[in-house]
Design goal:
- By secondary structure, this protein is α/β, with parallel strands linked by helices.
- The chain folds into three domains: about 150 residues, P-loop containing nucleotide triphosphate hydrolases (Rossmann fold, 3-Layer(aba) Sandwich), CATH 3.40.50; about 110 residues, Beta Barrel (OB fold (Dihydrolipoamide Acetyltransferase, E2P)), CATH 2.40.50; about 80 residues, Helicase, Ruva Protein, domain 3 (Orthogonal Bundle).
- Helix content is about 35%, strand content about 25%.
- The strands form five sheets. Strands 5, 6, 7, 8, 9, 10, 11 and 12 form an eight-stranded mixed beta sheet that branches. The protein has a five-stranded parallel beta sheet with strand order 4-13-14-3-17, with helices on both faces. The chain has a two-stranded antiparallel ribbon with strand order 1-2.
- A hairpin with a 4-residue loop joins β6 and β7.
- α1 packs parallel to α2 and α13 packs across α14.
- It is extended and about 95 Å long.
Length: about 450
């Protein structure tokens, strides 16, 4: 007899570089806990980020900017992701890299503006009258066709909806009956009907029929509670870029010519300033009337020194606009030339006039003890077993090379340990990894020693 195990369809989350970051690791008073939410050290930078989170939540940070600066591998990107975790999923968070603006299809300023608009959310609240329940009756009413012939047309449909509280009969328009036919609604199904728009949604099959023998996979839902007729507040979260894109490319129709024209259009189109102004006017009207609420999000620009002088002047203007998100920059550069300028040198490669607008948060290198604790957190996230001796040795590797290189050696060392028939990583596995994989310093030293064997021009 053949017995096979069915693999679970539950998706496993991939372990990325910053998977262990769950927030900023602050207590109720806003002080950084030594080790919390995946964080080790960087107390000052985390507390500064916590103040920024509070300002964002109180909507006092719109149109302002923050700069994370520090050596490579000191947690600048992790701080930005920690801020995103603290704000939650309802606040838009748009990450990008400075080099993304260099595209052959659209202008640099257009790429920046698109990301600005992606980082500004709009929460629209709408009160809707809805009918919800299990269909216990569906009787279409027909009359003779007025256009001649022997055909009959449906003038209305009588639908009986049942909930826990009671039953109600509704007489619906034939267009709603057509929508129900498209949704393949039948007796015993639970439906959701909007009174204002007439849209119908099939929620699923009522769980009273769950014992039926059905070859098809069916979703069973409980009988709705409350009355058939309800008033619901629908909250929808969109970004300003969603509104821009929806209005920039309206759908023409369902015929083959309009479909072909949509396919033939270029994938990337610039949105005009005039259209954005019109959308801003509509958004402002919604906000003034209380229908919508503006949710300023976070635009994170990593490697900001890759932007050129044109982008920096555009950012000066964009930060002053009424609809502006919180912008967080990050860079690991010191005093260096500003890209696109005639040899102008500035701190972090950012012009001084833009630096004046920024609150600067500095990240500091980790100590040897902090390196070991961070590697222990990463080992726990990646489900890698290491004893204290091998963890201490890996911390020494981080001191000699970089923390990133030490963290990258863990997975290859785990593979080598498994090949030797062990689950736990030993010092011998780490030494084998160091023999197989070079760190940047060792590679640079070899380049200097064997300079005559490489092309240098």
């Amino acid at each position: 007899m053949k017995i096979d195990e069915v693999a679970s369809t539950t998706k496993k989350a991939r372990v990325a570089t910053h998977t262990h970051i769950k927030g900023l690791g602050l207590n109720e008073k806003g002080a950084a806990v030594a080790q919390a939410a995946g964080w080790v050290g960087q107390e000052s930078a985390r507390e500064a980020s916590g103040v920024v989170v509070d300002m964002i939540k109180e909507k006092k940070m719109a149109g302002r900017a923050l700069l994370f600066t520090g050596a490579p591998g000191t947690g600048k990107t992790a701080l930005a992701l920690g801020i995103a975790q603290e704000l939650g999923t309802k606040v838009p968070f748009c990450p990008m890299v400075g080099s993304e603006v260099y595209s052959h299809e659209v202008k640099k300023t257009e790429v920046l503006m698109e990301n600005f608009r992606r980082a500004i959310g709009l929460r629209i609240k709408e009160n809707k009258e809805v009918y919800e329940g299990e269909i216990v009756e569906m009787t279409p009413e027909e009359t003779e066709s007025t256009s001649g012939g022997y055909g009959k047309v449906i003038t209305s449909v009588v639908v009986g909806l049942k909930t826990v509280k009671g039953t109600k009969q509704l007489k619906l328009d034939p267009s709603i009956y057509d929508a129900m036919q498209k949704e393949k609604v039948k007796l015993g199904d639970v439906i959701y009907l909007e009174a204002n728009s007439g849209s119908v949604k099939r929620v699923g099959r009522c769980d009273a029929y769950a014992s039926e023998f059905d070859l098809e996979a069916e979703e069973y839902v409980p009988l709705p509670k409350g009355d058939v007729h309800k008033r619901k507040e629908i909250v929808q979260d969109v970004t300003l870029h969603d509104l821009d894109a929806a209005n920039a490319r309206p759908q023409g129709g369902s015929d083959i010519i309009s479909m072909m024209s949509q396919i033939m259009k270029p994938k990337k189109t610039e949105i005009t300033e005039k259209l954005r102004r019109e959308i801003n006017n509509v958004v402002n009207r919604y906000i003034d009337s209380g229908i919508a609420e503006l949710v300023p999000g976070v635009l994170f620009i990593d490697e900001v020194h890759m932007l050129d002088q044109e982008c920096f002047t555009f950012l000066n203007k964009a930060l002053e606009s009424q609809l502006a998100p919180i912008v967080i920059f990050a860079t690991n550069r010191g005093v260096c030339p500003v890209k696109g300028s005639d040899g102008m040198v500035a701190p972090h490669g950012i012009p001084v006039d833009l630096l004046d607008r920024l609150l600067i948060v500095r990240t500091i290198p980790y100590t040897s003890e902090e390196n070991v604790r961070i590697l222990a957190v990463r080992a726990d996230v990646e489900e890698i077993e290491m004893d204290e001796a091998s963890l201490a040795r890996l911390g020494e590797v981080g001191d000699e090379t970089t923390l990133r290189h030490a963290a990258q050696l863990m997975t290859p060392a785990a593979v080598i340990a498994q090949q030797s028939g062990r689950e736990e990583i030993s010092i011998a596995d780490l030494e084998e990894c160091q023999r197989l994989f070079f760190d940047p310093k060792k590679s640079a030293k070899l380049l200097q020693e064997q300079a005559d064997k490489f092309i240098t021009y």
